[in-house]
Structure formats: C-alpha cells, structure tokens
Write a structure and sequence with these properties.
Strand content: under 5%
CATH superfamily of the largest domain: AhpD-like
InterPro entries: AhpD-like, AhpD_core, CMD-like
Number of helices: 7
Organism: uncultured miscellaneous Crenarchaeota group
Keywords: Oxidoreductase, Peroxidase
GO molecular function: peroxiredoxin activity
Radius of gyration: 19 Å
Number of strands: 0
Domain Carboxymuconolactone decarboxylase-like: 46-123
CATH topology of the largest domain: AhpD-like
Length: 136
Amino acid sequence: MPIGRKVEYEDASPEVRAVYDDIMETRKLRWIADFWKVIAQDPATLKRTWESMKQTMGPGAIDPVAKELIFVAVSIANGCEYCTTAHTATARAKGASPEMLAEAFAVMGMAAETNALVTAWQVELDDRLRSAARGC
C-alpha cells in the first residue's frame, strides 16, 4: 500500500491534470500509472519528475528500446519491481522482442556476476582500461 493516496484524474488540480494530460499524450495512453498518481500528492515533484523523464527517455543518440532496457537493468539492480515491470512493458511496446529481453537479462546477470567477482577479489582498475574508457 502506498504512503498517502493516489490522486485520480477527476480529483486532480488543474496543475496535476496538465501533467497527466502530457503523460498520456506523450506516451499515447488513455490512463495514468499509479506511480504518477502517488507522487502527484506533491505537484512540484510530479512535474519535475515527468519533465526529467520525458527529456531523458525522449529522442536522442540511444535507441528507444535500448533506453528502456537500460532502465530495466537499473530497476532490477535496485530491486524495484514496479519499475522493472513498467519498463519491461514499455520496452515490449517499443518493439523489444522476447529474444531481446532474454539477451538483455543474460547481460544483466553476467554484469551482476562479474561485478560481484571484481568486488570480492578487490580487483584494482587497470590504467589501460581507465584510459580507454576516457577515450584516450
């Protein structure tokens, strides 16, 4: 159960309705997810979070499906079932196939495993890798 209440569209202030309308128009939906309804208890947080989400997940150098798969990976790492489910559904809607999801999950699992091994073995970062990552 969420802390506080969900702000339903019909009960929302004009400020919150404007954000809801933008979410539905941008995402081509006819409904508002509970995440947005709960954070709408604080209209400033709702607006700021939506504007940031819209900008970050909007058109850019990274393919839209790849952005969603990155969001899924971070959500899994953070243990957020809600975000994992929401962004898996969005990835599917944007064209992620079952094979793409399976491969992404395999990459996520491999990253988690090798991250744990590096941490356990306390492997120090190679100077060559550091330079390569910086584009040097």
